[in-house]
Amino acid sequence: MNTDKQPTAARVLVVDDEPDILELLELALVRMGLLVEHATNVREALQQIDSKHYDLCLTDMRLPDGDGLEVVRHIVARNMNLPVAVITAHGNMENAISVLKAGAFDYLSKPVALEQLRALVKAALKLPQPSAAVRDGVRTLLGRSPAMEKVRDLIERVARSQAPVHISGESGSGKELAARLIVEKSARRDQPFIAVNCGAIPETLMESEFFGYRKGAFTGAEHDRDGFFHAANGGTMFLDEVADLPLPMQVKLLRVIQEKKVRKVGATQEDAVDVRIISATHHALAEQVQQGKFRQDLYYRLNVIALHMPPLREMRDDIAEIANQLLARLRNGAAVEFAPAALQALCHHNFPGNVRELENIIERALALCSGGIITPTDLQLAPADTGVPAGKPDAVVRYPLTDYLDGIERAAILDALQQTGFNRTAAAKILGITFRALRYRMGRLGITGRDE
User: Fold this and answer.
1) For a Cys staple, 376 with which of 155, 255, 345, 408, CB 3.0–4.6 Å?
2) How far is CA 371 from the centre of its chain?
3) Cα–Cα distance, 323 to 210 (Å, whole number)
4) Together in a domain, 101 and 220
5) 221 and 106 together in one domain
6) d(Cα 177, Cα 46) in Å, to the nearest integer?
7) Residue 37's pLDDT is what?
8) Contact (Cβ atoms closer than 8 angstroms) between residue 286 and residue 233
9) CA separation (Å) from 156 to 27, 54, 134, 262, 323?
């Protein structure tokens, strides 16, 4: 006699008042090995949700006594560990965005495609438990300030959704790291994560890079090639510096997000893709919309959930702790520590390059320090740390001359990089030097040009 306990089938609540839709959904879910119960209105749905355990709730948007948003809000308000998806009218993107903003896991458009339904259900049932530990090898966001705690809380919540997320923040503040943490806590954690720097792709190559191409589509296309969307299928695409996308590409990206289909360059048919979009930029995207540089409709599709990464200068109480944690990771077991004066100097620095700049400063200090102690001199902080405005240094900070000149050069390069979104080619033009010269100077001064 086999006494092994069999795994319990997942239980799904379907909320719809149309018998034919209920029958279709129930049949599809039962064939997936799931237990299905149903409700025909909001009142019944809320009663069942409060009295029984479900692993997934699937509700229609339009119900006799209300709408699916009421079901979503009920679940979210009570912090239930229950993913809920909403069935919306075809083409009604306003409803789709509203349910995602309310906290729904995802949405389906009518008529419901069974393939999309199965993919949604599988993803929802793979969600990890809240606060599940991030796997070894993945770095975490440092700092205990209220702003950073708010970021961590939001990451926990948005990870349990399929909604697009837009991450804003200055260069070096950890936008890509936040995106990766969202994925690590999501149902897509074992699927591809494709990071794309939108500012680094020539405009003429964007369509083929994003969507792929067929053999013979253009000169040099000697074989079929998948694009970023195909590579990310089933997973997540991180669009870094999304504000740098040219307007024609914005139109094509919007269509892919809405239709969930891509057409390779030179192809006659479209391919269905299932990709969650997380975007980021150091620009104020709403201002880009007002200036006509970014499409408003795409902005609303990307900015369903907004997450802002605080700059390091707004977390001064955390700087010493963050610096010590970075030092512990970078020193490779060596007995090296900060002198109290060095930590004090770091706490008074403005960090225009944020955590990435702090990491670079510590790496340089490790190479320069002696006796296992990092001193303020080893940090080689720019003269601006004394409180003197950049470009207008006081005589008391002009010596030694080498440090003074390095500080001015560093400030000028960082300013140019900030203006161009860390596009080094454009920054070199602003500075009036060659790209190679800029790369050399950035290396000498410990400046990097790419977000973590």
Assistant:
1) 345
2) 41
3) 38
4) no
5) no
6) 37
7) 95
8) no
9) 33, 20, 11, 30, 25
Q: Show Cβ contacts of residue 331 under 8 Å, excluding neighbours closer than 6 positions.
A: 366
- Is the four-CA dihedral 317, 319, 323, 326 of positive or negative sign? positive
Boundaries of domain holding 386: 382-452
Alpha carbon distance 447, 355 (integer Å): 12
CA distance 263 to 53: 42
Q: Classify residue 374 as left (phi > 0), alpha (psi -120 to 50) or beta.
A: beta
Report residue 311 as tokens.
């700059």
Q: To 10 degrees, what angle do helices 146-158 and 175-184 make?
A: 40
In a domain, residue 317? The reply is no
Q: What is the pLDDT of residues 201-245, one digit of tens each?
A: 888 889 999 999 988 878 777 888 899 999 999 999 999 999 999
Instruction: Tell me which amino acid residue 309 is.
Output: M
Q: Quick one: pLDDT at residue 431? A: 84
| In a shared domain, residues 184 and 271 | yes
Residue 87 domain-assigned (yes or no)? yes
> What distance in Å separates the CA atoms of residue 444 and residue 301, rounded to the nearest whole number?
41
- Residue 238's CB: how many other CB atoms inside 10 A? 25
**Nearest residue to 446 via CA among 307, 337, 350, 351:** 351
Unique residue bearing structure tokens 């190559």? 205
Cα gap 256→114, rounded to integer Å: 20
What is the rounded distance in angstroms from the CA atom of residue 151 to the CA atom of residue 145? Answer: 10
Q: Is the peptide bond before 128 cis (omega within 30 degrees of 0)?
A: no
The DSSP-derived string for 229-274 is HHHTTTSEEEEETGGGS-HHHHHHHHHHHHH-EE--BT-SS-EE--
Q: What is the pLDDT of residues 393-406, one digit of tens each?
A: 444 445 556 666 77
* Lookup result for tokens 């240094």: 393
* Cα(67)–Cα(88) distance, integer angstroms: 10
Strands 66-67 and 35-39: unpaired
Is 344 part of a structural domain of the chain? no
CA distance 113 to 115: 5
Together in a domain, 89 and 157: no
Place of tokens 């839709």: 21
CB 207 within 8 Å of CB 252: yes
The pLDDT averaged over each successive group of 10 residues in the chain (452 residues) is: 59 93 93 94 94 94 92 89 88 82 89 89 83 49 88 91 93 92 92 92 90 85 89 95 93 92 91 94 90 94 93 91 91 90 91 90 90 91 50 45 73 81 82 82 72 38
C-alpha dist (Å) from residue 94 to 82, 84, 87, 109, 285: 23, 18, 13, 12, 20
